[in-house]
Specification:
Elements lengths: L26 E7 L2 E7 L5 E8 L7 H12 L10 E5 L2 E3 L4 E4 L11 H9 L3 E5 H12 L8 E6 L4 E6 L2 E2 L34 H10 L8 H6 L3 H25 L3 E6 L1 H17 L11 E4 L7 H13 L1
Parallel strand pairs: 1-4, 4-7, 8-11, 11-12
Antiparallel strand pairs: 1-2, 2-3, 5-6, 8-9, 9-10
Helix pairs in contact: 1-2, 3-8, 4-6, 6-7
């Protein structure tokens, strides 16, 4: 029984310690190509939150110049450190060693330890892969390849290459390349690599401009301009270009039957006509029962974001 002159005071429960909200996850991505380094911080949906880019002299740069350019680019990660950084690099790469082994146009990148340098600058896990192969992870996590375990992602335009996701894994064997130098014509034009008839010699913007010029269509012809023209010469060159791009993809379809091909880069300028010609050619080669009929889609991702999305996708695939 309590004394009413001294009412019982209830001791209030202690308030729980405030819990700081969990910092949202951030993904880091770097694109390293001749003369340019792009870097970006992305969120888990693939939205670019911050970005920067810095240039360097591809022909004259020394390793120290590359270090300085990478340092400038890496400052974008200084605020909230990302979960990791995926590097999309041009040329030949050794992902296990973290090296860019060779880039024809940048002598200083030969053997460049990009993973070691970037890890030292940021303190977070870093991994490197060839940009054409890597972009398939961007499509897997953020683009038309979501939910698929097998499909191909294709770079078109000034550069050419294919990244393949097969049964959930990126096909990236040691020494493997992106397909630009697969032979499609044994007696074809000499390539920059020294071989003849590489896919690159007939399926890039360089070939398109030269072919348009020889057909009397003028200088510096673009795919977009070619599609808009209705004359027979333009239609013929467009059909040849689509056939040439499809030549490499037919080989990929025959070997791995990815079913879906996501086109990036210049293919966006070709619209439905160009996409349809490539898809028609691919479908003409599917002759066995049970195979998924090839489908071609054109990515809507901004050209400057494709490699960065691939780098972010690699981080997601690792963590």
């Amino acid at each position: 029984m309590t004394d009413e002159r001294f009412p019982l005071r209830l001791v209030p429960e202690l308030e729980p310690e405030p819990v700081a909200p969990r910092a949202p996850r951030r993904l880091g991505a770097v694109e390293l190509v001749p003369g340019l380094i792009r870097a970006a911080v992305l969120d888990m949906s693939g939205t670019v939150l911050e970005r920067t880019e810095t240039g360097y002299d591809a022909a004259a740069a020394l390793p120290a110049d590359l270090d300085a350019a990478l340092d400038r680019a890496a400052r974008v990660f200084a605020g909230t450190p990302p979960q990791g950084i995926g590097v999309a690099a041009a040329g030949l790469v050794d992902p296990d060693a973290g090296l860019i082994t060779e880039v024809n146009d940048v002598p200083a990148l030969r053997g460049y330890p990009v993973v070691e340098r970037l890890r030292a600058l940021t303190g977070v896990p870093v991994r490197v892969e060839h940009h054409a192969r890597l972009q398939v992870l961007g499509d897997r996590w953020f683009g038309p390849g979501r939910g698929r375990r097998t499909f191909a992602s294709v770079s078109t335009g000034e550069v050419l290459g294919v990244g393949i996701l097969y049964a959930g894994q990126v096909l990236a064997p040691p020494g493997g390349r992106s397909g630009a130098h697969m032979t499609v014509s044994a007696s074809g034009e000499r390539c920059t690599c020294g071989s003849r008839g590489c896919w690159k010699t007939v399926a890039t913007t360089r070939w398109l401009r030269a072919r348009a010029r020889s057909a009397g269509l003028g200088e510096a012809m673009s795919l977009a301009t070619l599609v808009d023209r209705e004359d027979e010469a333009a239609r013929q060159v467009l059909a040849e270009y689509a056939e040439n791009v499809a030549l490499g993809l037919v080989n990929v379809q025959q070997l791995f039957a990815p079913g879906l091909f996501v086109l990036h880069g210049e293919a966006r300028e070709g619209g439905e006509r160009f996409r349809g010609l490539i898809e028609e050619r691919l479908r003409s080669d599917v002759v066995w029962e049970g195979a998924e009929k090839p489908r071609v889609v054109v990515s809507t991702a901004a050209v400057d974001d494709v490699a960065l999305l691939g780098g972010a996708g690699m981080v997601l695939s690792q963590v």
